[in-house]
Amino acid sequence: MKNKIANIFKSTRAAGIEVVFLPEGGFSINIALIKVSRGNLSIEKTISGIEDINEIKTHISSDTPLCLVFNGKGIIHKNVEITEKDIDKTLVRKVIPNANIKDFHLQAQPRVIGHGFVSIIRKAIADDIISKLKSNGYFIVSVQLGAFSLMPIASLIDEELKDKTSFELKIVGHNITINNNSVEEYLFDKTSASVKKEINIDGKPISTDVLIALSAALGYLQPTIKTAVADVAEVAIDQEEFQQKKIFTTVGWSALVFFMIVLLVNYMLLDNYSKMAADKEAEATQYAGIEKEKEKLEAEMNEKKVFIESMGVAESSNTSYYSDRLVTSVPHDIDLTKMVIHPLAKKIKKDERIEFNNNVIIVEGECSKSKDLDDWVQSMKKEYNWVKQITVVGYSQNNSQEKGAFQLSINLK
Question: Where are the beta strands (DSSP E) in 156-218?
Fold first, then answer.
């Protein structure tokens, strides 16, 4: 389940970074930037021969995960005998006798009992590069040693190798002999490492200098491609942090869009209710003595609107739904005059915290018969499972010729 979630939120872009340590000192960096769009992989950019690690910032944004590959001087690959009792400590010592596992990063190819390739690099060398990349804000999601990542994409390099389980692959000085899908021999020929060639991948010419960086990025973006990676604890943490950042960003933007829609719907409802209020006010002007009351209500409405917007207590979509259901359920014999959602718990006093009665809706209106009001109350109790309790706070009617005024208190579950 965790892997499925990780694949859902995996980045749609990745950069392969090959750092080649040169015999005379220093290093050369090759870059391949790949993206996934609608299920298709495409190569955005390839660069080779970079000598300043800080130059990477000009080509790759810091939100792009890096797949790091180390090659050249200082990396040792050895085909060793492997037993069931072997652990990382014993494997390192089969490459360099008496070596301290704490001084090396180890990479072991998928192997069976018998023989397998083990690659090592001194932590001081690798961690210096990793530290510089991390200081520039990058997340490193994998580290590999050698050119073993080329094996799964051999058919892209040479179509004649498609479906073959045994073949020899020679590219940029790396000679890999595959027998039954296992590495039988691996050599690095320094004399041919600088020879530049081009191959066509999906009709696009690609320099062989960036193939290893390209294959590393492909291995990250395409879950079906399986390659060995070096055991670097800091990178494992980086990979998890990048995954969590990706999930947080994706979910965060989704939540932002959702709440923007909710706010838009609430605004539309508010606008609609404002128009309804304006119509009622136009009718109210026919009656003497209510002009001041109308102005007072307008002032209160505007004050509450400003207060709600400034305090950030706008109701959620559920409250909007409840109020909409209540309005649409009103019988023709009943007129609503006021609805208060989450009313004040007490009068507002200076320097005191404002408190609200959450999950309470106050409804006021008029009706000719108390039976009509009772029928409406019973109907709401029966129809709406989100209604906990409805209390008739008050009902008064001067005579049978006039409508009676009522107030309901609706408690929500």
Answer: 167-171, 174-179, 182-188, 198-201, 204-207
